[in-house]
């Protein structure tokens, strides 16, 4: 059995642990997938590198009200050039990262999957046995698929494969209504494909504030063929190289009429959509099951499958007791499934592995998120429904982007900055934006919540540049009815 000082399972955010404190330790990094993990190889970074050209193209198409006409269609989109620019950069970073780690005298990289055989013993797929007094579990999550005939067809993809398509798909069917479905609908529509999005329920982006999700639904409906209340039950191939997605109605009666009218169809309760490519975006599950958690006695949340940890990111056993020498971070233990959360937890774990006697706690109070769609969405803290459920009184203001000077310049008609506060204390409870640059505009609100600044502090304790789009945030704050 090969013994190390520290073993890290997973080279996504797990790879960022290795700062100066680890230079004198014998460290193993184990990853059975592509070095660098999800965000770099198949997640945040390549998707946003696709979002950017899609966003520019879609914005160009919408210049009409500003007196400029630009004709952007799929014929102008060089898919191989876009794809190769993205992966030319990303693949090199992954390979460079792997080479660098391998070049370090104190680091051993194992490019295999691994599972536990005991609380601090592991075995790789090839049978190599490993042990360490300190093990960090950062083995992430993977795509979750429903049980559906046709998933093995070459036209059916997940976010892991769809970004490397050899050819441009003219018709794309996207299954799902979460972040991944929304961002890829924007990417393929923005670049000129015909997109049909099939969502099981009648609500997109479930975790979002209701008003924001509804505005996004309206916007999605204006852009692509959005079909709510349909559950795919089979994908069947045709001789011409296309596939047909067959779906069954799942939504309430009032939605049924509209969708049935647009459907290409067998009857009111079923529809068929023909596609060159189908993207299944039906969620992700933590990789805990691949680790043989029972062999180590790891505690797993039965509903979510997440590894259980305490506030110091120490792994808990099935009875909720802290396990000696085991820490976890990122998608394997975090319900948020966000890279900035994995990175924050990695910083916490990096410290706690070296200083277990003086641990720091993770701060999960105000986790922001953005959906990089057209328009963008960004949120932090409670939704209005959550705030009203938890507080007797709340102050809420939805400020339209179209009501501030830069919004006039953009002729924006859908964007809002919604702020929710406790009227007695002036503390922000939540903030939700939909509109251009939402992921940037929200940052002062995240900062205010994290540092405890009041609404009055942020609204009047600083200058806001005129006539920047940030005035929508300033005006939203000033519009709150506080005591
Ligand atoms: C399409 C897409 C877009 C996204 N966009 C965003 C975004 O814009 N913003 C954002 O914040 N988040 C985004 N995310 C989520 C983000 O990518 C993840 O939250 C983050 O990458 C999780 O990091 P991690 O270190 O926990 O896991 P990962 O980066 O997944 O690393 C885990 C590693 O462990 C390896 N592994 C798994 N099991 C084993 C095993 N048994 N043995 C050895 N190795 C193993 C895997 O191969 C993998 O490389 C996106 C995700 C996807 C899929
Ligand atoms: N911008 C970002 O931060 C970003 C972008 C992409 C992904 N992510 C992360 O990745 C995670 C996974 O994203 P996701 O969109 O795959 O998951 P999700 O959980 O957000 O959405 C899954 C969707 O699939 C649908 N679904 C599930 N089972 C189905 C079935 N059998 N038939 C039809 N529909 C079904 C659900 O109703 C839901 O709409 C997110 O939670 C997010 O944290 C983040």
From TrEMBL:
Q: PROSITE patterns in the record, alphabetically? A: PYRIDINE_REDOX_1 (PS00076)
Cofactors needed by this protein, per the record, are:
FAD
Q: What segment(s) does the record annotate as region Disordered?
A: 245-270
User: Start and end of every Pyridine nucleotide-disulphide oxidoreductase dimerisation domain?
Assistant: 367-476
Keyword Transmembrane helix in annotation: no
Enzyme class label: oxidoreductase
E.C. no = 1.8.1.15
Indicate the segments forming the FAD/NAD(P)-binding domain, all copies.
4-344
Q: Which SUPFAM superfamilies match?
A: FAD/NAD(P)-binding domain, FAD/NAD-linked reductases, dimerisation (C-terminal) domain
Positions with a binding annotation for NAD(+): 176-183, 283
Picking any one GO biological process from the record gives: 2-oxoglutarate metabolic process
What are the disulphide bonds in this sequence? 39-44
Bound cofactor: record note:
Binds 1 FAD per subunit.
Q: What GO MF annotations does this protein's record show?
A: dihydrolipoyl dehydrogenase (NADH) activity; flavin adenine dinucleotide binding; mycothione reductase [NAD(P)H] activity
* Pfam families on file: Pyr_redox_2, Pyr_redox_dim
Q: Which residues form the active site?
A: 466
Gene3D superfamilies, alphabetized: 3.30.390.30, FAD/NAD(P)-binding domain
Sites binding FAD sit at 48, 331
UniProt keyword annotations, A-Z: Disulfide bond, FAD, Flavoprotein, NAD, Nucleotide-binding, Oxidoreductase, Redox-active center
| Family in the record | Belongs to the class-I pyridine nucleotide-disulfide oxidoreductase family.
List the NCBIfam families hit by this protein, alphabetically: PRK07846.1 (NF005884)
Q: What is this protein called?
A: Mycothione reductase
